[in-house]
Amino acid sequence: MKKYVAIFAVSWENEFVYRLNFVLWRFRNVVRLLLTFFLWKGLLTSNSNVFGYSKSEMFAYVFLVLLVQSLVLSAPSADNVGGEISSGDLSNYLVKPIDYLKYWFTRDLSSKILNLVFAGVEIFFLWILLKPDIGIVFRISSGVGFAIALGLAVVIYFFLNVTTKFVAFWMPENTWGITFLTLVLIEMLAGVIFPIDVMPVWLKTTVQFTPFPYLVYYPIAILLGKLSGWGLIRILLQSCAWMILMFFAAKLIWKRGLFNYQSEGR
Amino acid sequence: MKEFKVWLRYTNNSFQQVISRRALALIFLVGKCLRILMFLMFLNYIFKKSSGMAGYTREQIIFFYLTFNLIDSLGQLFYREVYRFRSLVVSGGLDFVLVKPINPLIRVLAGGADVLDLIVVGLVGGITLYFGFSHISMSIGGWFVYVIMVINGLALATAFHILVLALGIISTSVDHMVMIYRDLSSMMRIPVDLYSSPVKFLFTFVIPLGIMLTFPAKALMGILSRELIVWSLVFGGLSLWLALKIWTLSLRHYSSASS
To answer: Which residues of A touch B172 (CB under 8 A)?
Structure first.
């Protein structure tokens, strides 16, 4: 455990080495929030209620996306795992007494917590600047459900992310292609730009059978009170199922990949 | 002429690289087409469910989005190399570009045209033309102005990319800079008129993404005044000139780190 605490601390400090890069990354997140905020503000001017979302609910959704995104989708592993396998740098980790997956999960956690702190500050200032009409009726059950769904989303995203990167074991030059495809699917199907329930019913139902909406949309929907009772429990169980599925998929592909790994480039 | 020959050589090399990795190319192409289709579907659906979007018809909104994709893909087709510029600066590899007897901007800006975007440009261009003729306007004059405004949009995109390169030399932070440009430009997937007044002003007069990405469609629809057309052309030319000046200035700050 001690070594992972040390990795966490080093990773935390590492985030501050390229400060401008960090500031710009945060700025990008703010721009994305503004994009979605002004998009919905424009659409909701003439329509006080779109797709069952009132103005205040939609603005709450937009702000929560920034928060959830900072925690769930921020992951240095996304930029490194594929490259380390392709370049043979993975060998450096394999000879050390650490678990590669735990190493990257620790580094991801460090980045997530840092991003969450900054996202909190950004939301505070944007709240003051934009003065959005936000209405969240907080219920304990929603809060607890949100926290559980968020925790599950973090783990689902980690395993989904590394699983796609493990493609590099077989196709070292194609990692970026799979990453790009996954990013497109997350952008559209995770609820980052728009809530999933604005989609046609058939598409919304289909999307439920993919891991994407469990990353951003469902945690927020739970907090906004869109899901309660049996519906809430069902979604949390489905999230658990995805987490278990992704965990075993990642473990299996990692094992098979290691058999195929030839440390090319070393 | 020498520059054009060199650019052709770079482009040829870049195309061969892509063709040698067919699986990657296919995945990228599927991703790009999927993104365009899904947002198109979202726009169409949102239009059906809401009572209107700033007075535009559904066909007009779709045409705005198609034009956005056309100009955006053109920018990516020509200036893909900008996304790889950071490694050249931080490794000192830019030295090798600077010592060559050719304008370094050609190499770092347009040295890696992307064949995948050529396919996307072909597809989106064809659909835009067909959709525009059948739903927006059949006027030859209108299409002439549209093409001029698309070229002006590309000039502005060029200016943005040169600025990113210049800032990259000064700060070494190209990756996020170029992504900020992409994030901001993605706000123009819908007409600038849909945004509230301060945002509309910002994207027309301060960061001219509105001129770049929504003015061509407006010109074809006949809702852009002559004054605004002339003003945007002047603005496009000035932006390009200014970006080139800043690029020249930034080169003086290059410290050849790590080399």
So the answer is: 20
Q: Report pLDDT digits (tens) over B42-79.
A: 888 777 776 667 788 888 889 999 999 999 999 988 88
What DSSP line would sit under B12-75, residue for residue?
Answer: HHHHHHHHH-HHHHHHHHHHHHHHHHHHHHHHHHHHHHSS-BTTB-HHHHHHHHHHHHHHHHHH
Residue A79 forms contact with B (CB below 8 Å): no
Instruction: In whole angstroms, give the CA distance from residue B207 to residue B201.
Output: 9
Q: Is the distance from CB of B12 to CB of A163 less than 8 angstroms?
A: no
The two three-digit tokens of residue B7, written as one number: 């650019």
Specify if A127 maps to a domain: yes
Q: Which residue of A has its CA nearest to B23?
A: A174
pLDDT of A118-133, one tens digit each?
888 888 888 888 777 7
- CB atoms B28 and A25 under 8 Å: no
Write out chain A's pLDDT in tens, 266 residues.
Answer: 788 889 888 888 887 777 777 787 788 878 877 877 877 777 776 556 667 777 788 888 888 888 898 889 888 877 788 888 888 888 888 888 889 999 999 999 998 888 888 888 888 888 888 777 776 777 888 899 999 999 999 999 999 999 998 988 888 777 778 888 888 889 888 988 888 887 888 888 899 899 999 999 999 999 988 888 898 999 999 999 999 999 999 999 999 999 988 877 66
Full residue range of the structural domain in which residue A27 is found: 2-260
pLDDT of residue A45: 65
B194 contacts A21? CB cut-off 8 A: no
Closest CA to B246 of B173, B171, B162: B162
> Cβ of A42 and B175 within 8 Å?
no
Asked if residue A98 is part of any domain, the answer here is yes
Is A67 inside any structural domain?
Answer: yes
Residues in chain A with CB shorter than 8 Å from the CB of B194 are 39, 42-43
- Judged by CB atoms closer than 8 Å, whether chains meet at B31 and A188 is answered as no
Question: Which residues of chain A neighbour B209 with C-beta distances below 8 Å?
Answer: none
A27 domain residue, yes or no: yes
Q: For residue B130, which of B75, B196, B62, B76 has the smallest C-alpha distance?
A: B62
Task: List, as ranges, residues 192-221 from B with C-beta within 8 Å of A.
Answer: 194-196, 199
Nearest residue in A to B180, CA atom: A28
* Cβ neighbours around B91 below 10 Å, total: 12
Selection from B213, B165, B161, B207 nearest residue B186 by Cα: B213
Distance from CA of A140 to the nearest CA of B (A): 33
The total number of structural domains that make up chain A: 1
Interface of A with B in 164-193 (CB under 8 A): 171, 173-174, 176-178, 180-181, 183-185, 187-188, 193
